[in-house]
Amino acid sequence: MKLEAMIEGRLVKRYKRFLADVELADGSQVTAHCPNTGSMKHCAEPGSRVWLNDSGNPKRKYPLGWELVEVDGQHLCCINTGRANALIREGIEAGVITELQGYDRIRQEVKYGEENSRIDLLLEAEGQPDTYVEIKNLTLLETDGWGSFPDAVTTRGAKHLRELMAMVAQGHRAVLMFCVPHAGIERARPADQIDPDYGRLLREAAAAGVEVLAYRATLTADEVRISHPIEVFL
User: Fold this and answer.
1) How many separate helices (H) and strands (E) can be counted in the chain?
2) Number of neighbouring beta carbons within 10 Å of residue 158
3) C-alpha to C-alpha distance for 51 and 9, rounded to whole angstroms
4) Would you kindly state where each structural domain of the chain is located, as residue ranges?
5) Sheet with 187-190: strands ordered across
6) pLDDT for 3-49, tens place per residue?
7) 201-221 burial, b for 16+ CB within 10 Å, e for fewer?
8) 84: enclosing H helix or E strand
9) Which of 99, 94, 84 is nearest to 134 (CA)?
């Protein structure tokens, strides 16, 4: 996935969840849209190098959008959670995500379940059970290359796990996919210290037959692409 019209700066602060003030190279300061509703723990430190995308749309209140951050002065990370679904789809279509090959159709945002949900990707093929793929963006880097999800308590994430378990019970295939657009993360696990209920339910889902996968992305200042799987420890 190419990232075009990128502008480098330094993060001044992130606030009101959806806004970030950034100082540009010429010393001017701009306010950019922050496309991430999580806590962004370790990814929103003032002074960090960041990259903004210029939408080129002067009618937007905030034409600049925050895309990348350099974590700890060394690891590039894509904080735009809106990219995750497209990145995973690209990885499937490119043959990189080997566990999700052999399907005829990929549909997005399909309504399903009993809790008013929409599945991120629905994979379909003649003669095969439908495969429901729920995608989560994992950007919380802890020590020694460990990445954890979630970075804040997530009742929505728990709902999605329940829906996936229900699909397995109905004879379908269900996958929880962690998209990891963070160069410093080498392995993944649930963030039990942040949301122990989610960690418990994730282990319950895995025991019930929900497949839990994680794929890392490689990143530059103008491109993000899914590259390889990393192990998930439950």
Assistant:
1) 3, 16
2) 18
3) 6
4) 6-78, 81-232
5) 140-141, 146-149, 187-190, 231-232
6) 988 999 999 999 999 999 999 999 999 999 999 999 999 999 999 99
7) bbeebbeeebbbbbbbbebee
8) helix 84-93
9) 84
Over residues 177-211, the pLDDT tens digits come to: 999 999 999 999 999 999 999 999 999 999 999 99
Q: Rounded to an integer, what distance in angstroms lies between the CA atom of residue 116 and that of residue 114?
A: 6
Which architecture characterizes domain 81-232 according to CATH?
3-Layer(aba) Sandwich (3.40)
**What is the residue-wise DSSP string for 8-33?**
EEEEEEEETTTEEEEEETTS-EEEEE
CATH class of 6-78: mainly beta
**Is the pTM above the cut of 0.90?**
yes
* Residue 234, SS3 per DSSP: coil
Q: What is the DSSP letter of 51?
A: E
Strands 140-141 and 131-137, how do they pair? unpaired
